[in-house]
Amino acid sequence: MSPFPSSQHPRNTQILHLNISAKQLPRPVLAATKTVLHKLLGFRRFNAIYSGLPECAAADFSRTVLDAMHVRIEATGRPIDTIPQTGPLIVIANHPFGLIEAAALEIILLKRRPQIAVMTNKMLAQVPELHSRCIFVDPRNKRRNRRLNVQAWRRSFRWLAQGGALALFPAGRVARFQWSRMGVADVPWSSHIGALARRSNAPVLPLYFHGHNGSAFQLMSVLCPPLQDFLLLNEFNNKRDSTMRVSLGRIITSYEISCLADDTKVTELLRDETDKLAASR
Fold first, then answer.
1. Tell me: the pLDDT tens digits for 216-232?
2. CA spacing 20 to 30 A to 224: which of 52, 147, 165, 235?
3. Whole-model pTM?
4. Residue 72's beta-bridge partner residues?
């Protein structure tokens, strides 16, 4: 995963866009509909942020984006210098916001690991600076994207086997209001993370991002969960001029993981260790 070279061409002003087709609508009506939806769903603001960024290498992209949005990162818990600088490493985190925490996670890890891979939403595959640093998946696991997800997990195993650091969000989907908890929390974690940890023999570092998306997003989680994804860009844009607080946990060793009976038990341990960090100050 070598860094992208700086480009001399102007940035695409429509890097993210909706693909809408309706044969029964006149072309001007369809164009006007797309314009309105781009504004309502946050595509226009995201594209404005992206097109206004200075040129940078891929390794600097996350920092460049958050600097442009005046987003600060406050790390608490274990010191950052406890992150291993070499060898395979899996970094896991809760998923409270949807997009921006992937950038924050990369910034934290780059302080100790120059080469990392982040597993993230395929929506961001439209951003060329991320191609060399991200492994893209469809968190909704739609049938047409299952091949993409299988390839992503295979690539993750290879990356860890080469001694790389891999960061991912085991919930896959963004945290939402849970009646059972009477609050906002991650959806159940996939046991794939347990399988990855057991079979790669890599230690695992849990991180916890404090906070969650706004009331409109949480209301949608109750009324119509599938429509939440359409609010993710607005939630990303709303993080401007904010501070993201993240707590680093203890390293869970490969030996500790190997002592557990199966992938489900490993996944339960990893989530428990992550959730404990919610009380960190």
1. 888 887 777 777 777 88
2. 147
3. 0.87
4. 243
